Amino acid sequence: MEDQVWTAARVATLIGRKFHISYSVSGATRLMRRLGFSPHVPARRVAERDEQAVTVWKEATWAEVKEPGRPAGATSVSRTRQASPASRPKDVPGADAE
Fold first, then answer.
1. What is the model's pTM?
2. CB neighbours (10 Å) of residue 8?
3. At what angle do helices 25-34 and 8-19 cross, to 10 degrees?
4. What value does the mean pLDDT of the chain take?
5. What span, in angstroms and rounded, lies between the C-alpha atoms of 25 and 8?
6. How confident is the model at residue 50 (pLDDT cuts 50, 70, 90)?
């Protein structure tokens, strides 16, 4: 399911990409509130909504702004590679547990 919510994190990312200015998530939240924006999702769509323009915008801009998801194979939080069993020392505790 594709969400259409502008989170503070997404706004901070957009500001960084478009204006080359770094904002924290809390900074983006304060900026949005100062400009009169609230974190609420609209309850209904406007009658004048141009579906074709929305589709074009989603394909061109939203794909650029939306953060990519984590790859399906990435399950470890470590950025280092585990050593292969063949390269591990044989005299360490637990070496025979393979």
1. 0.39
2. 19
3. 90
4. 75
5. 5
6. confident
